[in-house]
Amino acid sequence: MEIDKARQRKARHYARQKLVFSLLDLVLLLTCLTLTIATGLDKLLRDQLYMAVLWAPILTWHPFPGYYPAQLVAYFAIAFCGYCCLSLPLAYLRYRLSFRYGLALIDGSTWLHDTGKNLLLNFALQAGALLLTYGLLASQPHWWWLWLALLLLLFSIIMTNLAPVLIFPLFYRFKPLPEGELNQRLLELARRTATRVQGIFTIQLSHRTTAATAALMGLGNTRRIVLGDTMTDRYTIDEIEVVLAHEIGHHVHNHIWKMLFSQGVLTLAGLSLTHLFLRWLMDNQNMYFSLTDPATIPLFALLVVSFHVLIMPIRNTLSRHMEYQADEYALQVTQKVDAFKSVMRRLASQNLTEIVPAPLVEFWLYSHPAVHRRLRHADEFAERLLSSSYASASFKSCNRAATSSTGPSGMVNSGSSTPHSAH
């Protein structure tokens, strides 16, 4: 399949508009947090909560000194709802953008329903992380950052294990891949590569999006290969086999574990820097009552978001390296270069992905190598494969020639008869 130039022009326009929305999202969040701190709104909200103690005594409950869970949750809930009111119009415009370009298929009511579930899930997870963080700040003021990094790593491992059976089913339906040639080919590939997974599943996406996707999900007893029905219904068996081999490559190289622990290291670094900054702030400024003052929540969020933006190139560089390894594994296992290149081009066209994005955008935002790099990787592999095949054929040819020209003793025969002894 050749590159569809018209689709690529459309992909470039879509990528630029999507980038604008991403930047607006980030600017809105950073602006809201900065203005909340600069205008004193963070302390005003705290003071209003203190006044609310008169009619909500639960706000005074504290399991140990300096830790007021109800105040923290109430403060966070108000801030979370306020930001949602500001950001939802932008989120809706992003949805309309993908709908206009033919990627999103759901209507507005379904989008609103999904967004509501997402917000509730995010609120629950973030509120839990907030309570854990401030509980450690109150009980372990010198080592909270270390304990928090370790507990977040443990939580990430648990959630990676549970997500395929607990989180994703809230939004998508999973079905085992039906019996047939495709299922047999993929199971044979898994057997040949000694890959232990809990099964190959299809995820029902066709009623939501036209984009195709595939992923390796879960850990241990929940590890599974997931293929979108937007892929299984449209791609050839060879193409899907290459995609599955790529996902198996992540399993073989232990990429999920490597990503979890690298994220843990980055989290530890970020929290240690946050600890040093907060200590300096408490020692030199008179902005907050204590480290566990609810008014520090916007500041803490600003530090976390800023650090996340700064380390994105590190995380994405590591991710692109892992994707390169998975591509290499898929090419080595299947040796189906044409199918690999075909599926890359088709995915780029179907998902409106730029084949050659701007270098800075790729460096900062792309978790996968750009499509043109993956196509070049396939061409380089084909050259290596051809060279190794030629070298192997030449070696065998030389061996055959050497064997045919040796006598029983292994010595080179000159071609003349062995002289008989005279008498």
TrEMBL record:
Region feature (Disordered): 401-423
Highest taxon, organism lineage: Bacteria
GO biological process: CAAX-box protein processing
An example Gene Ontology molecular-function term: metal ion binding
Domain Peptidase M48, first and last residues per copy: 177-380
Cofactor(s) for this UniProt protein: Zn(2+)
List of catalytic residues: 247, 327 (proton donor)
Residue stretches spanning the membrane: 20-41, 72-93, 119-138, 144-172, 260-282, 294-314
UniProt cofactor note: Binds 1 zinc ion per subunit.
Binding site for Zn(2+): 246, 250, 323
Domain CAAX prenyl protease 1 N-terminal per the UniProt entry, residue ranges: 2-172
Keyword annotations from UniProtKB, A to Z: Hydrolase, Membrane, Metal-binding, Metalloprotease, Protease, Transmembrane, Transmembrane helix, Zinc
Family matches, as InterPro entries: CAXX_Prtase_1 (IPR027057), Peptidase_M48 (IPR001915), Peptidase_M48_N (IPR032456)
Keyword Membrane in record: yes
Family per similarity comment: Belongs to the peptidase M48 family.
Listed name of the protein: STE24 endopeptidase
Naturally occurring in which organism (per UniProt): Thermosporothrix hazakensis
UniProt lineage: Bacteria, Bacillati, Chloroflexota, Ktedonobacteria, Ktedonobacterales
